[in-house]
Amino acid sequence: MTLESVMNEAAIEDNLKQFLLVLSVSLSVATLPQIFSWFRQIPYTLLLVIVGLVLAFVDVRLVDLSPELILSIFLPPLLFEAAWNLKWLDLKRDIVPICLYAVMGVIISILLIALGLNQLTGLSLTTALLVGASLSATDPISVTAVFRELGVGSRLSTLMEGESLFNDGMAVVAFSFLVGLPLGTANGTIQSILVQFFSVVGIGIAVGGLIGFGISYLTQRFDLPLVEQSLTLVSAYGTYIMTEDLGGSGVIGVVTTGLILGNFGSRIGMNPRTRIIVTEFWEFLAFFVNSIVFLLIGDQIRFPILGENLGIIAVTVGAMIVTRAIAIYILSQLSDSFAAAQSADRLVHSDISLQEQTILWWGGLRGSVSIALALSIPAFLPEREKIIATVFGAVLFTLLVQGLTVKPMLEKLNLLGDQPLRQRYSEAIARLTALNRVLEYLNQVEKRPGIEPEFYRYQETLIKGELTRLQAEIEQLQLEYPHLQDFCVEQLRSDLLAVEADTYAELVKAGRLNRELSLFLQQDFAEGNNE
User: Which of 386, 418, 450 is the last residue of a domain?
Assistant: First the structure.
């Protein structure tokens, strides 16, 4: 065995030990809320950051965090999971504000943060622009986790996740261009900027669309859940790597693939059971990756360097908050004006309330993408360490201060509404439906040898008693909260749409249809809403 192979094996073993150490710490943190109830007040991702900070404070470094590791290994699954679970109809209804936030919002963020840093701290314009570009990508993972926990309306989650998915791509494109300016690899004319932007985005959409639709039609030809699950994993990483190699945006490519597979491919190429398996797999993978990324974000903090740049960090945080407010409130008004002008279009959503705008402003956290961009700055560029320290400090502020105050702000703005009530009602309906099916099966099943008739009677009595209790609970809720009737109608409409869509998908899969038909009930429900 050569010396080189021995060194390679030692390096692999060392990396494996580091990985297992990080994973062990992350999973230990996950158990804390189950042991100490107080920790349940803190979102899991923020708890990981805090534990990472404690480790950094005592100078325990788990592993070196390289930008290539985040962008190439951690970013694709996070983007794909979010895109897979984002419903196209919800995204389409709010496509105008999402595009405004993701494109114009990024431009406003970069320019105003750079202007503030340049004028107030004396940073060079190039350095200030790189800081602004790094911090223009939002990362709402912690906030949307709070949304799900508290039962906040789905529209806020769609707006935040949709903006994040698309502004990640915009931020990476803008950052790549700005890094190229001091290196002399980028042309600063407006024409060249637009050409580069459309080229990078176009390649991402083209590659993502090709892979997304290709796998969608491929999975029509077989029904192998584990293979189909593996194909989604390969598509996430394959799209990112292929798009980057072709000079496009890997972020845009992965988002495009995820949207197509989640909304189209999973319908025509996967049966319902397979869709559930794939969705659960990506939920696990997102949890797994987030557990590592957020712990390492805290662990990578260098407190002495942060202390040396506290003034610049404070100005950056102030500029970031003000800039985010300007972008959200102005662009929301612009979106509302557009919605009013296009009110005849059924797909245009109603305006965004002031309370929702406030949460979008304060919930615009920064995370792994911002840190990865800052770390990817070439080592020979001047003030690189200052940029990294500033971005780390700003990210830390958004995660710990803004992230921990989103929940009380939601309560203060009355955005929780009747979601807890709806959740309670939905659970009662679900249990009622499930037990009715159990009772139906119990009445139909043949008497099995070795089981006494008394057992059947006992189970029947037990189930009927619970059904009576549930029915009384549901009727009481309907009596106390009459507005639940609207919620019941919404639920039934959603179920009917799902049945229609699944039926078309099954017919396409069986070869009895050449394409999936548009949903008849969708148009009918839209007309009913307008009336």
Answer: 418
